[in-house]
């Protein structure tokens, strides 16, 4: 099995691919929840995504999700707009990192 080593975590290519898809899906879900005003649901999604991000050493994404979780609890809509825009860029960067990790596992195989 081809694996990617990140710190002490060893993550297989298939797990990296699933995690990449989950990051994209959770981001889209957060956008839809924000647009629909479902701030309570945003708390759970952002918390879950923060945990996955920490596991994958995507610390910027984890930090951004933690802020969104907090702001969602407060229902501070103006701050949420700002943080959701930040999230867009952080997700893009995180997906790029995931693509590089996936490519690295392919080249080792």
What would you say this structure looks like, in words?
There is one protein chain. By secondary structure, the protein is mainly alpha-helical. It has one domain: Four Helix Bundle (Hemerythrin (Met), subunit A) (Up-down Bundle), CATH 1.20.120. It is built from 4 helices and 2 strands. The protein has a two-stranded antiparallel sheet. A hairpin with a 2-residue loop joins strand 1 (3-6) and strand 2.
CATH-defined topology = Four Helix Bundle (Hemerythrin (Met), subunit A)
Into which percentage range does the β-strand content fall? Answer: 5-15%
- Weakly predicted, low-confidence segments: none
What is the number of strand segments?
A: 2
Order of helices and strands: EEHHHH
Radius of gyration: 15 Å
Mean pLDDT across residues: 89
């Amino acid at each position: 099995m081809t694996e990617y080593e990140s710190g002490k975590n060893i993550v297989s290519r298939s797990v990296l691919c699933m995690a990449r898809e989950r990051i994209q899906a959770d981001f889209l879900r957060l956008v839809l929840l924000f647009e629909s005003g479902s701030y309570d649901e945003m708390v759970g999604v952002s918390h879950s995504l923060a945990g996955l991000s920490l596991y994958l050493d995507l610390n910027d994404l984890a930090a951004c999700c933690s802020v969104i979780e907090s702001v969602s609890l407060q229902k501070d809509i103006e701050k949420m707009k700002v943080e959701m825009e930040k999230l867009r860029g952080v997700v893009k960067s995180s997906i790029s990192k995931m693509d590089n990790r996936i490519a690295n596992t392919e080249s080792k195989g």
